[in-house]
Write a structure and sequence with these properties.
Length: 439
């Protein structure tokens, strides 16, 4: 009896929860019918209540099944939606993780590139000549970039566009650096057009805009960068066949190369000021002595002759007194120019002091040296000097000493060339005397 009575409200609750208000009313109607009949008949036993409970259970089963089915479907949809959102979040996390990994890879690549460029800058900072820069490019450029051919174009020092030298920096290390010509005439025209403003450029073979802008035909892709020393363009770096993805690194490299070339330019300027006489453009005494020492060592190793000449301008003091010191400076400059004109490029000329000049004739014996000295003397004697409204003639005297017969040390050669010069002056000036001719 108690079991049935407890079951009845439980079934009411389940029906109300699962089937809703309609099921609850139906269940209530069935129970009310049985209660009413039982009260009327006066027989309300346990069997009746059991029957009533059983009927209600059986009556509720379809409703319970449907309710649970709807509940499971709702839960399934919620689970599917949750799984979909979780899968979407997972894919987003994977995408962001891939982006982060890509960014890390790019940063590592950029960091490696910067380290490489730092090493390049460090290596170039130790170079103090254009030849050293060229050798460095020849050896290392192919290790940093993939390209077909490379050229370093150097301009002259003046403010007009004149190409001085072109070096092929893409040859094998065994061949060494060498001067070359640009493989396409279009390059010369392009460089001249870019020269006024400079900049870094990448030219694609299919880029019609650049073709039209610069009026050139682009056969293969190439990169071109203007190299600067301060505000002045001193050259260009051109790489044929460079990959476009390497162009940003190429631009950074060109900047470092410009700094290296600027340092070399400044160093050579300072060295020139330290070793070159400002009036005549000849070597100063200290430099000519240094070169004489080097040539003496070379001559001893290879058993080669050379001649050292001392030149003195005849009556130079009287020239200064008569025409003034500005005219005397002019005479020194003109004689220096005449010497360079009448000598080989390998010969060395310096201002020994005052109006005395020194000449080092490499690999030259006495007989050849006498011919050269006489040619110099005659060229100066025949030259018509004109300065500040004055026209006059100048003569010179020369004394020479030859290695090894006249001396085997720098001091001996200078001393004996000076003795020969003194002898030339005693013989009436405007002549050439060698040490071996002194009696």
């Amino acid at each position: 009896m108690s079991y049935a009575l407890l079951l009845i409200p439980s079934l009411f609750g389940v029906n109300l929860l699962i089937r809703g208000k309609k099921s609850f009313l139906i269940s209530a109607g069935v129970i009310a019918f049985f209660l009413f009949t039982g009260l009327v008949s006066g027989k309300m036993g346990e069997s009746s209540l059991f029957f009533l409970s059983t009927s209600l259970v059986l009556f509720s089963l379809p409703f319970l099944t449907n309710g649970f089915e709807r509940m499971s479907q709702g839960l399934s949809r919620e689970i599917e939606e949750s799984l979909f959102h979780l899968d979407f979040s997972r894919r987003e996390l994977e995408r962001k993780l891939a982006e982060i990994n890509k960014t890390i890879t790019n940063l590592e690549k950029d960091n490696l590139t910067m380290l490489e460029l730092y090493e390049i800058t460090k290596a170039m900072s130790a170079l103090l000549s254009f030849e050293g820069i060229c050798r460095f490019l020849h050896k290392n450029l192919g290790k940093k970039f993939s390209f077909l051919r490379g050229f370093l174009i150097l301009l002259r020092g003046d403010d007009v566009f004149i190409i001085d030298k072109i070096y092929d920096v893409s040859s094998s290390a065994e061949e060494g650096i060498k001067e070359a010509y640009l493989p396409q005439r279009e390059y010369y025209k392009l460089i001249e057009k870019i020269y006024p403003q400079g900049g870094d450029f990448y030219f694609r073979s299919e880029d019609e805009r650049l073709k039209h802008l610069y009026e050139i035909e682009i056969k293969i892709p190439f990169a071109l960068s203007a190299l600067r020393a301060g505000n002045k363009i001193i050259g260009f770096l051109l790489l044929e066949g460079l990959l476009e993805e390497d162009f940003p690194k190429f631009s950074i490299f060109s900047t470092q190369l410009s700094l290296g070339l600027r340092k070399v330019t400044l160093y050579e300027t300072i060295e020139k000021l330290a070793t070159t006489d400002s009036l005549t453009g000849l070597y100063v005494r200290g430099k000519i002595m240094e070169l004489l020492e080097e040539e003496l060592d070379r001559a001893k190793r290879h058993r080669l002759p050379f001649t050292f000449l001392m030149l003195d301008i005849d009556h130079f003091k009287e020239c200064n007194d008569r025409y003034g010191h500005l005219t005397g400076d002019y005479v020194l400059r003109e004689i220096s120019r005449l010497l360079k004109t009448n000598l080989r490029e390998i010969d060395l000329v310096g201002r020994y002091g005052g109006e005395e000049l020194s000449i080092l004739l490499l690999s030259t014996r006495k007989e050849e040296a006498k011919i050269v000295a006489e040619r110099i003397r005659e060229a100066i004697e025949k030259y018509s000097f004109q300065a500040y409204g004055e026209k006059f003639q100048v003569t010179v005297s020369l004394g020479g000493a030859v290695f090894p017969e006249d001396g085997e040390t720098v001091i001996q050669l200078i001393s004996r060339a000076d003795e020969a010069l003194y002898s030339a002056k005693n013989r009436g000036r405007n002549c050439v005397v060698f040490y071996g001719e002194i009696k």
